[in-house]
Every structure is written in C-alpha cells, then in structure tokens.
Amino acid sequence: MTSSFLELTVDKFRFRFPADLFYSEAGVWVRFEGRRARVGLSDFTQQRNGDVAFAEPKEPGTAVPAGDEVAIVETIKVNLSIPSPITGKVVEINSELLNAPELINQDPYGKGWMAVLEVEDEEAARRDLKTASDYLAIAKAQAEAEVLR
Amino acid sequence: MPNLPRKKVGLISCSGEEMPEGTVTRRAVRKVLETLHPDDTVTLCLPLFLAGGEGERAFARYYPTIAIDGCDKRCAALATQKYSAKPAASIVVTEIAKECGCKGMGSARRLNAEGLRLTDEVAGKIVDETNRLLRKKPRDVQRGVGGGKP
Amino acid sequence: MKRKIPVVPCSGIGKSLGAAAREAAYILAEDLRPDKTKVVPLSLLVMGDEDARGEVAGGEAVAIDGCKLECAAKGLACSGASKVHKVAVFDVVRRHRGLKPEGVCDLNEDGLKLARATADEAAKIIDAPGGEGSHA
To answer: Tell me, what CATH number does B88's domain have?
Structure first.
C-alpha cells in the first residue's frame, strides 16, 4: 500500500491521490500488478458523486475495451456508467461491495477497489493514463468549476 | 498549512430539532448558500463537526465562520470554538425574533408565514455579516428570491 | 409518567439524507409513536446540555443517521444511553432502490418517501418485544 499522497483542498473538501497510481480522465484509478490491473474510483470521483448505494462491476470473463463500461455505480445522487481506463478482461471483482458499497466512499484506494483486469498491452495502457499530478490538475479544475458553478 | 484559495465564509447552524428557531437557522443558511451569497459561502455540517469531521474543522481553523444558533444555548458557536476556532460572528435567532417582533413561527417541522419571514431576516443578517467579513459593500449582493444553484 | 425513548437525528445540512433523517425523526415522534418517543437534538447532547443528557441517560435511544458517518450514533454512544438502536437512512435507500432524494430544506417526493420508510423501520424497533417501547 502506498505511503505517499498528493492532496487537493477546495473549500472544506479534501481530495487525496496516491502518487504511485495511474488515473483516467474520468476519475478511475489503476494499480498495475504484473500483467493485471486493479481499478477503482478516485477520491475525487467518489466525493463528487455522493454515497454509493450499489456497485456492480462487470462479471469475470468480460472483455472490456478502454472507454467501455466496466461497472455501474448507483449513488444517492446519480447513476454512473464507469468507463474502463484500460483494455482488458475482468478476472476478479470485489464481492465485498455487494453488501458494503460504502467501501468505495470510505476507502476508495484500498477496500473499495472494484475490479481486476487482465491487461492486453500494459505499455499502451500506461500511455493513455495520467500520473497523479496530471490527474490532480484535472480534478482541481473540475472541482473549482463546480464550486464556482 | 494547506493551499488556501479564494476567501470564503463558513456558515455553521445549530439546526436544533426541538424548536422552530432551529429550523429557521437551517433554512436561513441554505438560503444564503443557494441564493443570496452562493459564491462566497460554504456550509459546515454541525453533526459532522461534532463527530470529528476533518474537513469541517480544518476549514473553520483557516477561514472566518459565522455561527447561527436558534437559542442562547449557542451550540453552533460553542462547538466551533471548542473544536476549531472562535467564530468571527455569532447570530442568535431568538434575539432577531425579538428585534423584528416575530412571534409564533409555527413548528420545528413546518414553519408558518411568520417563521419564513424570520428566516428572511436571519438570512439578511448572515449576508450582512458575510459582507463585513469579506469587506464587501451591501449592494454587491442582491437579496430576495430567485436565481441560485440547482 | 413513562419515559419516552429519545430519537436523535443527525440533521446533516449538507446532504438530503440528513434532511430525510430529520424528517423521519419528526414522523416517528409526532405521527407514528408520539406516546413513546421524543426528538432530542444531537448538538445539545454532544455539548453536554444537562436536560438533554438527562433524557438519554440510562435508557434506550434511537439514532437516525443520514449516512455511514453515523454522527448521531457516535454522539449518542458518548451520552450515557444504555442501548443505542441505529437506523441509517442510507441502508433504507438500499432497500428502496430507485429513490433519488433531493433537497435539504424541502425534500422532494422521493425524499419524503424515504423519510417515511425510515420512520416505519424505526417504529418497528421501538415496538420490538422486550424493549422500553413494547408496552401498548
């Protein structure tokens, strides 16, 4: 587990981004684990969309191109289709989320992980993702735009 | 020391459930946040503040806050001072009710017309204090109904 | 006079779930079980108000929280209640899929339905055999 975080504070809201993860613009984090990649919602994404009531990742065995839906997340506010940050095949999903979807809000980078994908081309996948500092800039712009309306 | 963007004022209300004045504080704060002063204010959730909410307590340390209480028990003002920093301003609804001659404002669950009138008065006071803290002229903010956030 | 069971809502002002918790407390204490329950403000409890603490001390209480942060339950746990029944609006939402509560001062229709469903669940807890509220 990482020990280094980047932090963003907007008004009373504080968002954290582990420095060693990768991120899609849509706010999905990626942790590469050999030929596999674990994914979940960033702290910014989960705070922005509210308390998660239901989280349904695609079933293991599902092939998911980058940008296609890898999970559905239903919060108190909205229903979200979560785009996969990478191209791969779902090999494992977090079964804890069935009874405790709030893990996504409470521990988005740890117990709130959503799915593990087998990655076809890790090099290509990394190229399309953002580093933590790049993603922080994206999140900052979005957060400030929302606060200012 | 966190990176501090534009100065805003934190509004923290008591929301006392057993008296209509508590409901007035809550409605007045939301009115200021959503309609009257949306760009310069943030609400701080008192229950979360009391339970140890880091974001709420940190905000109140670095930004000015206005405590809006229903009665002279001043739960919001005292909690802010105890767990963070003394509020820059403190408003008590029972005092404003006396000033504007408001009586019989309905129930905590449902305010009547008088209660809504008092809500507007309290919201106006919050706006005045916010302007004072941000050194803004009164005419910079338009009072009344209309506009605001979805 | 028999003690009324204190009902403590979180009344969180930032989310509609807090508003639903508050409304659920009112529905319970004013409509469903007015003889058995009364609303006690969380902030008075946590700030050590003697009257509020006196209502809670040594007996059962119900915490109605909007979300999993459980501010009301945490506050009640430190306030001398012998047993705290926890009702989470968030969990009720999961049992009524599709409801999208909105509004803080004025709940929308889904929010009011959610508040009512929450109050109903709390009423069942109040009525449970063996508890303080199980008398007729």
So the answer is: 3.40.50
Residue range(s) defining the domain that contains residue B15: 9-140
What is the number of structural domains in chain A? 1
**10-residue averages of pLDDT along chain C (136 residues):** 90 89 97 96 91 92 92 90 94 90 93 97 92 71
CA distance C127 to C129: 6
Instruction: Report which residue type is found at A128.
Output: D
Q: What domain count does chain B have?
A: 1
A145 touches chain B (CB under 8 A): no
B14 domain residue, yes or no: yes
Q: Which structural domain, as residue segments, surrounds residue A10?
A: 5-148
Q: How far is it, in rounded angstroms, from Cα A13 to Cα A9?
A: 6
Q: What is the pTM of this model?
A: 0.85
The verdict on a CB contact (< 8 Å) between C49 and B73 is yes
Maximal C-alpha separation, chain A: 43
Q: Which residues of B touch A146 (CB under 8 A)?
A: none
Structure token pair of residue C19: 């508003």
Residue at B52 is within a domain: yes
Q: How many CB pairs under 8 A join A and B?
A: 27
* Residues B63/B86, Cβ–Cβ less than 8 Å: no
Which residues, 6 or more positions from B79, have their beta carbon under 8 angstroms from its beta carbon? B12, B46, B49, B50, C43, C46, C47
Chain-chain contact of A14 with B42 (C-beta, under 8 angstroms): no
CA dihedral over A76, A77, A80, A82, signed as positive or negative:
negative
CATH of the domain at A122: 2.40.50.100
The ipTM (two decimal places) reads 0.90
* Contacts for B76 with CB less than 8 Å, ≥ 6 apart: B12, B13, B14, B25, B46, B67, B68, B69, B87, C43
* Mean per-residue pLDDT of chain C: 92
CB contact under 8 A, C105 and B76: no
| Tens-level pLDDT at each residue, chain B (150 residues) | 445 556 899 999 997 898 999 999 999 999 999 999 998 999 998 888 888 888 888 888 889 999 999 999 999 999 999 988 999 999 999 999 999 999 889 999 999 999 999 999 999 999 999 999 998 766 544 444 333 333
